[in-house]
């Protein structure tokens, strides 16, 4: 089955262009388009796509609030906006601003990419978040990690109690996830099967109450795991 996608952008020409570029890939199917965040939330509830490609600055409801509603585990709210769809969100924006990155990740986005990225990168990003992995634009990754490390040093906070619930092997896997290794690379490093690594990652996310690998990386840097 192709990856089902909704494209949300308030500029019709940009929206149509992104949709056409994605639809041209054999393994991606654009099932709907939204002109604002509120429509994106409604369409996500209606179509339950694998991925919503979401702009940030939109009328009626911005992309960050729409992301928060789409990725929420709560039931539909009183306005009829469906939530808890299991849909992943890839934020695609013109603005390389740190506050957008933090807000997008905090809202539950699985990826953050700039609109000047090559077409192949956009398609690859959709595939990445659709399979449950996370992705950040290279231009913001180093700044994000550096800022997280600085905040950790300033706060000097202790690791959350949940971290102590990890087994030694799970702690090893978390450290390697934070270093950016894929499941295959972690399996090779720890001499495990890739399926075993995938199981460990799932347990780590569950025990720490995290949504995806991006949040695991943030957790690891904020709490001195790496």
From TrEMBL:
Q: Which InterPro entries match?
A: CheY-like_superfamily, NreC/VraR/RcsB-like_REC, Sig_transdc_resp-reg_C-effctor, Sig_transdc_resp-reg_receiver, Tscrpt_reg_LuxR_C, WalR-like
Keyword Flavoprotein listed: no
Q: Which UniProt keywords apply?
A: DNA-binding, Phosphoprotein, Transcription, Transcription regulation
What name goes with this protein? Answer: Response regulator transcription factor
The UniProt record lists the keyword Transcription regulation: yes
Domain Response regulatory intervals:
4-130
> Which Pfam families does the UniProt entry name for this protein?
GerE (PF00196), Response_reg (PF00072)
Q: What does the record give as the organism's lineage? A: Bacteria, Bacillati, Actinomycetota, Actinomycetes, Streptosporangiales
Q: 4-aspartylphosphate (modified residue): where?
A: 55
What are the residue boundaries of the HTH luxR-type domain, all occurrences included? 159-224
């Amino acid at each position: 089955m192709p990856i089902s996608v909704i494209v949300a952008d308030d500029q019709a020409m940009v929206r149509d262009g992104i949709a056409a570029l994605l639809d041209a890939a054999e393994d991606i199917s654009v099932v709907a388009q939204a002109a604002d965040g509120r429509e994106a939330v409604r369409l996500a509830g209606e179509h339950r796509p694998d991925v919503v490609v979401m702009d940030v600055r939109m009328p009626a409801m911005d992309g960050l609030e729409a992301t928060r509603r789409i990725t929420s585990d709560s039931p539909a709210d009183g306005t009829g906006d469906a939530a808890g769809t299991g849909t992943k969100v890839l934020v695609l924006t013109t603005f390389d601003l740190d506050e957008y990155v933090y807000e997008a990740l905090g809202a539950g986005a699985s990826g953050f990419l700039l609109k000047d990225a090559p077409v192949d990168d956009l398609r690859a990003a959709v595939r990445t978040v659709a399979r449950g992995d996370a992705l950040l634009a290279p231009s913001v990754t180093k700044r994000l990690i550096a800022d997280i490390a600085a905040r950790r040093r300033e706060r000097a906070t202790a690791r959350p109690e949940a971290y102590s619930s990890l087994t030694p092997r799970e702690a090893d896997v978390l450290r390697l996830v934070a270093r950016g290794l894929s499941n295959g690379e972690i399996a090779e490093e720890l001499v495990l099967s890739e399926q075993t690594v995938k199981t460990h990652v799932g347990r780590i996310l569950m025990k720490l109450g995290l949504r995806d690998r991006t949040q695991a990386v943030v957790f690891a840097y904020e709490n001195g795991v790496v």
